[in-house]
Write a structure and sequence with these properties.
CATH class of the largest domain: Alpha Beta
CATH topology of the largest domain: Beta-Lactamase
CATH architecture of the largest domain: 2-Layer Sandwich
Strand content: 15-25%
Number of strands: 11
Distance between the termini: 83 Å
Order of helices and strands: HHEEHHEEHHEHHEEHEEEHE
Largest sheet: 5 strands, mixed
């Protein structure tokens, strides 16, 4: 290799590394940053096809893989047509073989804890053997890829912790207030009603005291799952306190909100299997925007009052109060 070619490759390598670092610092999307890794590899190994696959689970053998980015792969090999979003490494190898890409050199991508988070796959022309130095270069890019994937996973985890309840995996109080404010704004502009429902589990403390917090956690998780399953996808279920939940029902007036809330209360009343069957019910207070308020403070105040009346009502198996 000539000195000019060596110098050119060195400059391209440095420029590629700078671009990767800039992408990491500025928070570029993971796929874009991984694409920079492949471009840097392609600049060094111009004759290879390459792709980066991300593992859904931290396993090397049976982990499901999603193709994050590729360079040089034929359309058929990189397409997910007629394939699920994540498949095994064996299925990916078959897809590549079907498109005439064989053999594939797979390099494990690991995070800083040395756990597998993906694979770097490269295809070289037949007879092209990698020198030990070249393989070390590829391993270095695999390590960089591991850092990129790990950073993205940490960013997702931090976002989840900031906006979602860790136990039930539904929106937390912070995200609830954000969605309520946006829902009110949309309702006022579109002139479609929005209903706010506050729910409180009636006998949750008794379950906690009798069976312990593990049983209580199971109840909260199951209640959240049932509410999510019962509500249409455009509505929000949030956990706003210990045994307190809230529903934001978009484009739902009072009568529709009562129907949906009764369905939710009925779903909650079904026994929850544990070491023994656990029974819990809920009370709910419903208010409608703009009828009972046009801002968060008004709606929450009226919803709290409606919930208080529902809990005081002499009905069994879950109570509901819809303010008028």
């Amino acid at each position: 290799m000539s000195d000019d070619r060596t110098l050119s490759l060195s400059l391209e390598a440095v420029q590629g590394q700078i671009k990767i670092m800039n992408a990491l610092v500025t928070g570029a999307p993971m796929a874009d940053t991984l694409a920079l890794v492949l471009r840097a590899l392609a600049a060094r190994f111009t004759e290879c096809f390459a792709g980066i696959w991300i593992a859904r689970h931290e396993t090397e053998d049976a982990g499901l893989l999603t193709l994050a980015t590729d360079i040089g792969l034929p359309q058929g090999a990189s397409s997910l047509d007629n394939m699920p979003g994540s498949v095994t490494i064996q299925e990916w190898e078959q897809r590549l073989r079907d498109d005439g890409i064989t053999p594939i050199d797979w390099v494990s991508i690991r995070n800083t804890k040395d756990r597998p988070v993906g694979w770097l796959g490269l295809n070289f022309p037949p007879g092209r053997a990698l020198s030990p130095g070249e393989f070390k270069i590829i391993e270095q890019y695999a390590r960089v890829s591991g850092l990129i994937i790990e950073k993205d996973q940490l960013d997702q985890e931090n976002h989840f912790l900031a906006y979602y309840d860790y136990l039930t995996e539904v929106p937390n109080r912070r995200l609830f207030h954000m969605r309520l404010a946006k829902g009110i704004e949309d309702a006022m502009h579109s002139h479609h009603p929005l209903s706010l429902v506050l729910l409180d589990l009636d006998n949750f403390k008794q379950i906690n005291d009798t069976y312990g917090h593990i049983a209580g956690d199971e109840v909260l998780q199951e209640v959240a799952r049932r509410m999510v399953r019962t509500l249409p996808h455009n509505h929000t279920v949030a956990r706003t306190g210990g045994d307190e939940f809230a529903l934001i029902l978009t484009e739902a007036g009072g009568s529709q909100a009562r129907i949906i809330t009764n369905q939710v209360l009925e779903a909650i009343r079904h026994p929850i299997p544990w070491d023994v069957e656990l029974f819990v019910s809920a009370s709910a207070g419903i208010v409608v925007c703009p009828d009972q308020g046009t801002n968060e403070e008004e709606l929450l105040r009226h919803a709290d009052a409606a919930l208080y009346r529902a809990k005081k009502a002499d009905q069994s198996g879950g109570n509901l109060d819809a303010s008028r």
